[in-house]
Structure formats: C-alpha cells, structure tokens
Amino acid sequence: MEKATMKWDLILVRYGEIGLKSNYVRRQLIEKLKSHIKKSIEIEGVEEYKIESPRGRVFLETPSIEKSINALSYVPGIVSYSPCKTVEPEVASIVDMAMQISQDRLAENMSFAVDARRVGEHEFTSQDLKEIVGKELRVESGASVNLDDPDYTLTIEVREDTAYLFTDVYSGLGGLPYGVQGKLISLFSGGMDSPVATALMIKRGCDPIALYIDKGGFGSKKERERAVKVAEKLSRLTPEGLKFIKLDFEGIYSAIKDDADKETCILCKRAMYKAGERINEIEGAKGLITGESVGQVASQTLDNLMTLDESTSIPVYRPLIGFDKSQTQKISMRLGTYQASKEDVGGCPILPERVATVSDPMQIKETENKIKIDEEIEKTVENREVDLIKPD
Predict the structure, then answer these.
(1) Three-state SS at 251
(2) What is the DSSP letter of 176?
(3) Alpha-carbon distance 219 to 349, whole Å?
(4) Most Cβ neighbours (<10 Å): which of 66, 167, 231, 359?
(5) Pairing of the two strands 111-119 and 152-159
C-alpha cells in the first residue's frame, strides 16, 4: 500500500512549551489550542471530527486525514503531528499493525529503525517493543537496521490503554496558541518584512491588527492590492481573520515632502509610529510590530531607530531586528507570502537622494511642529477604514 492510501485512524498532535506551564495555565492554553484546531480544520472543509487532550498530547480523530494535516500546519502552538494507527497495547497487536503499516513501505534495499516509548504500566518495556518489532520487520522485509540514519522509521507510542503507530512527523509552527498574549498593532505594508514580523509575533501568542498606511496619490493601486493579498495569506494563521485598518496618509506625505529633505524617511516613519500609537490606544493593544532590521536600509541605523522609538511611548517589537534579507525571505516562502510580497509596486516617490543615517531629533521635532503632524494624524485616524480579512 502507498502512503497516501493508508487509512489512518487519527492524528497525534504535539505541543512544546505549553507543557512547561503551570497546570492552570497549561489547561487554558490547551483549550485555546483545541479551539484553534477546530476552526482551522473547518476552514479546510473537515466536518466530522473529535478532539481530545489526554495528558501531554492532543488527538484529532477524523476520516479527513489529508485535509486535517494541511489545516494543522496553520495552527500556532503545535510543534509536530503524526497520522497514526491505533491498536490495543499488547505486543501481538502492535507487531501485527507494524507489519501492516510497513509491508509496502519497507523494502530489502532499505535501512530502518524502530522507536518506542511508553506512558503507564505495561507488561513490556520500550526496549522490548523495539527488539521484537524490529526483528519481525527485518525478517519479513530483509531490510537492514540503521539506528543513526535510517531510510524508514516506525514509531510506537503506548499510552495507558492504546498504542499509536506512525511513520511520518510533520513540523508545526511551534510557539504559543494564537492570541493568548493580547493584541498588537502591526505596521503592515505587504512587502517582504512586515508580514514575516507579524507572523513571528503570531507564533508567540499575539493577536495582530494590520495597520496599512495608504499613500494616496503618492502610492499605487498595485501597492494597495498587494497589501490586501498578503493579508489574506497571513489571515490563515488567525482563527477569526485579520483585522485590517487603512489610514489615508496622502496629506501627511504631501506636508513632509514640502518641508523635509534627508530626514524625509524618518519623518514618515515617525508619523506611522504616532498613528500606530493612536490605533493602539483605540484597540486596547499592547504595542507596535515593525519589520525593521538593524542597518538593512539607511533609515534603520541604530541612531535612526532611537529617533523612531522616541516618537512613541508604547513598546515597539522588532522580531526581525537581527535577521538578514535571505533569512526573512526563507520564512516568507514558508508562509506562502513570498510571491505576493515580491511584486513590484513601485518605489516611494518622495524618497530623497540621500537618506540621513544619523537623524537630528530636534530638527525632526521642529519640522513635525511646523506641519502640525499630530493634528494631521488625528484627522486620518478619525477617518480610518476598518475591514476583516479572511483567507481567499
């Protein structure tokens, strides 16, 4: 039988750092995780299922295994998961199922290993299972044993009254369940960096609100469409969809263009920070997410980042701060946002020929006062557009 045609009974779902929490917190996080698993598999069209959480594991029982495997890849808090066959925790039953699973997966020219572990009291040890099942597989298939780098691994996990057998381990997102840490405002352009930064904070249990700065006549329709397209991709990680707030910054861009030179980029970014702080206050969030990385562009030198931080009184989270572009791109590819993010939407039309790498905070504040930046921000915040983005 082929892998794809194996009729698995359920999926064993593993979590990581959730298990390190106190009993009270762990129970809360597991319930959140189960709720998000439910929503994710329903998005994939899974209708028949049962989710249980005995000690140390979550089990998803469903006839829709393939759809569920895909759905679990979008659930933060899951470290890994495996489709399993289940049998009574008796040696004969375990051996029989091991042979069924392996009969067309393990060939004479291959190497293999058997891994086994137990929870609870049984008449056999984990080592007994490894030796007995391994011997039967070797005799039946003619394959050789290789414990270091096998072509095929069969794992047996015995927990109280059930034995679970599996061959595949799918990697999950890891981290904590979505939303358990509270809300953050993400300065979201739809380019390469901001979606990855947002996703990394989702992994840490945050509930992001995407704040998109619309340049109006200084931007393009393509730029706006890209932001929405990327937000749709990213919303697959958020059980209820991704809240998307758009602010019209055309007037602010115009004022900055007329009154700034080398410090244009810093003034623009400070205006975004200030707007983000207002949205943070309105939404009851706990800080900003940005995609900045030290030295990646001239406006992201340590001096300029200090000037940006000085513009707001709330925390600014920069999960990409030590990343280079290639690292960010790899994560973007895994997220499925890379193709949309790399679309050419044109550059910034008010970008100066030279960007100040060391900004003058006093000069910046004078310019902000001159163009009445706080008043302009208040106007655009009052006229904000709010949407809920869901997967396309």
Answers:
(1) helix
(2) B
(3) 8
(4) 231
(5) parallel
CA 139, 145, 151, 156 dihedral sign is positive
Angle between helix 193-203 and helix 221-234 axes, rounded to 10 deg: 20
Q: Which of 389, 113, 26 is nearest to 234 (CA)?
A: 389
Nearest to 126 by CA among 117, 115, 114: 117
Amino acid at 273: Y
Q: What is the pLDDT of residue 2?
A: 40
pLDDT, tens digit, 9 for 90 and up, residues 27-43: 999 999 999 999 999 99
Q: So what's the pLDDT on residue 292?
A: 95
DSSP 102-168: HTTT--TT-EEEEEEEEES--SS-HHHHHHHHHHHHHHHH-PEE-SSS-SEEEEEEEETTEEEEES-
218: helix, strand or coil: helix
Distances (CA, A) of 363 to 147, 359, 369: 66, 8, 10
Widest CA span in the chain: 84
7: which residues sit within 8 A by CB, 6+ positions away?
A: none
pLDDT at site 55 = 75
Rama region for 284: left / alpha / beta (φ>0; ψ in -120 to 50; rest):
left
Instruction: Give the three-class secondary structure for 210.
Output: strand
* CA-to-CA separations, 164 to 82, 113, 129, 154, in angstroms, rounded: 10, 16, 13, 11
Domains of the chain and any CATH numbers: 3-171 (3.30.2130.30), 182-389 (3.40.50.620)
* Alpha-helix residue ranges (DSSP H) falling in the chain: 23-43, 65-72, 91-102, 126-141, 193-203, 221-234, 250-259, 264-283, 302-309, 325-335, 338-341, 361-370, 373-382
- Tens of pLDDT, residue by residue over 73-97, are 999 999 999 999 999 999 999 999 9
